[in-house]
Amino acid sequence: MSAEPLNLLSYAFARDKGLLVLRNDDEACTIGVRNGAEPEALIEARRVLKRPFQLEAITPEQFEHLLSEHYARSAVSGDEAEAAMAGQDSLTSLIEGLSPTADLLDGNDDAPVIRLINGLIYEAVNRKASDVHIEPHQDNLSVRYRIDGVLQEVLTPSVRLAAPLISRIKVMARLDIAETRVPQDGRISLTIGGRSIDVRVSTLPSRYGERVTMRLLDTRHALLELSDLGMDEDTLMRFRSILSQPNGITLVTGPTGSGKTTTLYSALSVLNNGERNVMTLEDPIEYGLPGISQTQMHHKVGLTFAATLRAILRHDPDVVMVGEVRDLETAKVAFEFAATGRPVLSTVHTNSAAGAVQRLRDMGIEPYVLAATLRAVIAQRLVRRLCPHCKTPHESTPEEREMFGFSAGEAPTIWRPVGCMACGQSGYDGRLGVYELLTVDGDIRDLIRRDCSEDDIQQAAFSAHDSLFMNAGRYVKTGETSIEEVLRVCRRDEDGS
Q1: 206 phi, psi to nearest 5 deg
Q2: Are the CB atoms for 95 and 157 separated by under 8 Å?
Q3: Distance CA 160, CA 310 (A)
Q4: Average pLDDT of every residue of the chain
Q5: Residue 394, class by beta-carbon neighbours within 10 Å (0-12 exposed, 13-18 middle, 19+ buried)?
């Protein structure tokens, strides 16, 4: 194979003219041609390469595959991302640097789009965004960051930029740029400032073209100690006690983006003491965990949670983490495995810890199986932390003090957001974990076995411990978050009252 790079022609030129450098070494240079080529394009390729070449016909399918392979190698890197922002006042400067009429025969015409993508990712990492949303509309292209769980618009360039920007991102993620009718998923790996960032790319057809969502996964934020999650002392102590038990299922529940994966990984780090065979089934694998066997689901070939869970039972696991209990088949296999005397960790989408019990019953798990095998359910949310530079004190009202159970002389002052340069005018900076832990003791086990209601289980579980809403109230009392933020994230009726 060639020792020289194969992306000597610009990406836009190769894509539009259907020409690719297949081989490039001291002996020969071969150009792949898709469906013939215009003489002018071949002449321009000869000028850029500065040497004669041979032609080889390739099919459109081969061309699209090779195009992604060749040009994904020039994907964004940390040095390029930092250089893209060097000397730039803002992302708007990068937009203004784009020529409205790009010449496809110019060998450097990809550079402005690449610089813009570099700048978008670098700025997203710099602002601690978890996702980048790129959505084409009728008149413009919307670029938004999800910062601390809330979307913020950062750019609205011309919709004409959508095609080259999204096409280039798809190439970097090794996706099929010719396929725009179905969703696709890919990844881009990069390092910025010594930090490993994994960018998960997802495309989806929409009315005005494909939209792209890039999720930024920073390994520094995933591999936390259990004590770093922000649990109160009572919840942390009880959760450690649950993890020390030799069998049973522990579930983590909450909406998308509430930190469930981080909690699971922290729990696995406690269980992974070097003496256990710890195995995970994930869809997708978000972070690499040292010393743990992780398996990626592939539904197109039948690699589902249920099928793979049955397969790994033959690999003698001591601890299994299932990414999500989505259906009855997965739930049954997980509960059967836990009944053999080994711990299982998983997630389920419900609004509360008691709601997870009801969800499993609705799936078809028998109450006696639930009562015997379920060990605990931890529900969680993330509330935004008030910016320490601009938060302002306010006198709390009697209703607000009653809402969070303040005592007569406790916390007469609450804090509210304002917005400043330090927090990007949002009034918040960072997030805090809020938890409620339902442990299946004798009383709860009896309620589950008797098929009692979700409200009965909720009331029994949190008569002596904080519910999700009341747990969030501790941050209001200490001035770390606002009442408005707690009400945005947690329902008041989740306290069982």
Answers
A1: -140, 180
A2: yes
A3: 49
A4: 84
A5: middle
